[in-house]
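Components:
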Amino acid sequence: DTGVSQNPRHKITKRGQNVTFRCDPISEHNRLYWYRQTLGQGPEFLTYFQNEAQLEKSRLLSDRFSAERPKGSFSTLEIQRTEQGDSAMYLCASSYPGYEQYFGPGTRLTVT
Amino acid sequence: GENVEQHPSTLSVQEGDSAVIKCTYSDSASNYFPWYKQELGKRPQLIIDIRSNVGEKKDQRIAVTLNKTAKHFSLHITETQPEDSAVYFCAASSNTNAGKSTFGDGTTLTVKP
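Structure:
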């Protein structure tokens, strides 16, 4: 499968725990984006990378969120001390600069 | 920052009818406008896009129009089929914003057979 992949697909965690998600973009794409989607809403931008450099973070991203893309390939998104309001679908997308974004299947996070 | 508004939030049509979804954007620097279809539990998939240097683009039963002056763009689906039923999202982005997309809140389209 040459599309964008994300793992895990589902994650249930207790409030206060840390979680980490992984995104594997399309291999030739140097841009990688993270979005968050809640029910009934469109995806909201969180952060993006060009190669390994994280070039922008949304104000939505509190200090509990961190993202990395260490070798310019896969990326991880970590949420520390999860809260119930973090429950959402976390989507990853990749692209060439100036071209359409291809989305992964998402990781659905449920914080209990 | 960019703000995208999408209307209507729900749309129900009979099979064979046309469906139109409208979006407005606020940032005049936006120059790329994709439309995504998202089926329940699945990833958003690009169905058509338009750049600011053209006013209209068509792909079989789907067309998108763009009015830069009024800052609005629309998705037109003709001869709708039940498999067109899904949530449709419009988005706006610009090269100056590194292509990050600002999405509308979606339109749930139901095509009744």
